[in-house]
C-alpha cells in the first residue's frame, strides 16, 4: 500500500473540494441534492456518450419521462425514439427495463444498496457506486475510466494500462474525504476532463499537481492498437446498426422497405454482397436487441413497437 501517496491525497482534500465548489462543470443533472432518478438517467447516458451531448438531450428526456413510473410505461418504440442522438440504442431498452424492475421489485424507489443496484438491468459496478455516491451521498469509492487514470498517475504510472488494478482499487478506498464522496469523485472527473486527459496531461494548472508522482513526467504512450471490429465497407457493423435505427427514427411511419433502407444507409446501390450482409448480420442483431421488427413477407423493417 503506497502510504506516502495516501497521505498526499489527504493533504489534497480541502483544496480539491474548495476548487470543485468554485469551478465544477455545470450539467443539468448536477445539483446539491440531486434526485436519484436524475442520477440514474445521467449515469446510464454517460456510460458511452459524451457529456456535452447528454447535456443537450437530458432536459428533453426528463420532461418526456419525469419519473420511474413514466419511464417504466414507455413502449419499445417510445424509448427508442427518445434515445435519439445518444448512441448505443440498446441502452434505451435496458434503461426502461431497469425502471420496470425498480417498480416491480423496489416499489418504484431506486435501491440504496449496492447488491440490489447491481442486480438491475444495465447497472455495473461503476454505475452502482456512482448512484450510491451521487444520489445518496454514501461514502463509497467511485472509479470510472478518468478516475482510474488519475489515480494511476498520482501513484506514478504514466499509462493506466501499466497500473496494478488491485493497488488502484485499494487506493481509491482511502483517497477520498469521508463525508464528501460525491463532490470528490465528481471533482476527479472534472480534472480528468480538463487536465489529466488520456492523451495529454496538462500538469501546470492541475489542482493535483503537488500531490501527484507523475506531475510533469507523464510519458505519452503511442496509441494502443485498436481492437479490430467486424466491419462492412470498412465501417464497423455497430455504426451500420446505429445508422439503420437512426434512419427508421426519421421515417414518417418509423418503417421502411428493406432494400430502400439499405441503399439509404449505404448512400449507394446495394449489391448482392451488401444485401446478404444486411440480412445475415445487421437485421438479426437489431432484432435480437429488440430495436427493430422485420416482416419477411412484406420485407418491411420497423422500429420495435
Ligand atoms: S499533475 Fe499531471 S499527471 Fe498528475 S493528475 Fe494532474 S494532470 Fe494528471
Write the layout of secondary structure elements.
Blueprint: H1 3-23, H2 36-46, H3 51-64, H4 68-73, H5 76-82, H6 90-106, H7 114-118, H8 125-136, H9 145-154, H10 165-175, H11 181-194, E1 196-197, E2 200-201, E3 231-232, E4 235-236, H12 237-249, E5 255-257, H13 258-266, H14 272-288, E6 292-295, E7 300-303
The structure holds iron/sulfur cluster.
Structure in a nutshell:
The protein is mostly helical and 305 residues long.
Helix content: 40-55%
- CATH topology descriptor of the largest domain: Endonuclease III, domain 1
Tell me, rounded to a whole number, the average pLDDT: 93
Major sheet, described briefly?
3 strands, antiparallel
Q: Which oligomeric state applies?
A: single chain
CATH hierarchy class name of the largest domain: Mainly Alpha
CATH architecture of the largest domain: Orthogonal Bundle
Terminal Cα span: 53 Å
**Attached small molecules:** iron/sulfur cluster
Order of helices and strands: HHHHHHHHHHHEEEEHEHHEE
Write down the overall geometry.
globular
Number of strands: 7
Structural class by helix and strand composition: mainly alpha
Work out the strand percent. Answer: 5-15%
The number of helices is 14
Number of discrete domains: 2
Strand arrangement across the biggest beta sheet: 5-7-6
CATH superfamily of the largest domain: Hypothetical protein, domain 2
- Low-confidence stretches are none
Amino acid at each position: 500500500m503506497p502510504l506516502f501517496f495516501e497521505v498526499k491525497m489527504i493533504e489534497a482534500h480541502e483544496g480539491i473540494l474548495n476548487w470543485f465548489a468554485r469551478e465544477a462543470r455545470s450539467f443539468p443533472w448536477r445539483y446539491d441534492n440531486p434526485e436519484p432518478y436524475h442520477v440514474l438517467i445521467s449515469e446510464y447516458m454517460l456510460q458511452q456518450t459524451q457529456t456535452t451531448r447528454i447535456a443537450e438531450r437530458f432536459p428533453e428526456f426528463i420532461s418526456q419521462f419525469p419519473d420511474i413510473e413514466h419511464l417504466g410505461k414507455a413502449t419499445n418504440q417510445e424509448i427508442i425514439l427518445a434515445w435519439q442522438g445518444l448512441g448505443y440504442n440498446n441502452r434505451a431498452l435496458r434503461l426502461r427495463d431497469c425502471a420496470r424492475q425498480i417498480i416491480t421489485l423496489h416499489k418504484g424507489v431506486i435501491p440504496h444498496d449496492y447488491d440490489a443496484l447491481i442486480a438491475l438491468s444495465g447497472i455495473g459496478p461503476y454505475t452502482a457506486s456512482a448512484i450510491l455516491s451521487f444520489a445518496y451521498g454514501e461514502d463509497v469509492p467511485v472509479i470510472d475510466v478518468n478516475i482510474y487514470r488519475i489515480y494511476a498517475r498520482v501513484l506514478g504510472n504514466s499509462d493506466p494500462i501499466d497500473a496494478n488494478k488491485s493497488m488502484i482499487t485499494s487506493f481509491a478506498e482511502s483517497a477520498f474525504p469521508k463525508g464528501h464522496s460525491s463532490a470528490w469523485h465528481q471533482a476527479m472527473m472534472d480534472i480528468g476532463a480538463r487536465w489529466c486527459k488520456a492523451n495529454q496531461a496538462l500538469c501546470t494548472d492541475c489542482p493535483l499537481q503537488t500531490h501527484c508522482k507523475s506531475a510533469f513526467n507523464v510519458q505519452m504512450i503511442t496509441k494502443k492498437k485498436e481492437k479490430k471490429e467486424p466491419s462492412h465497407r470498412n465501417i464497423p457493423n455497430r455504426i451500420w446498426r446505429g445508422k439503420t435505427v437512426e434512419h427508421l427514427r426519421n421515417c414518417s411511419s418509423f418503417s421502411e422497405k428493406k432494400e430502400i433502407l439499405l441503399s439509404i444507409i449505404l448512400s449507394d446501390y446495394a449489391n448482392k454482397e451488401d444485401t446478404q450482409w444486411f440480412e445475415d448480420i445487421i437485421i438479426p442483431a437489431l432484432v435480437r436487441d429488440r430495436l427493430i421488427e422485420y416482416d419477411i413477407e412484406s420485407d418491411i423493417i420497423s422500429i420495435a413497437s
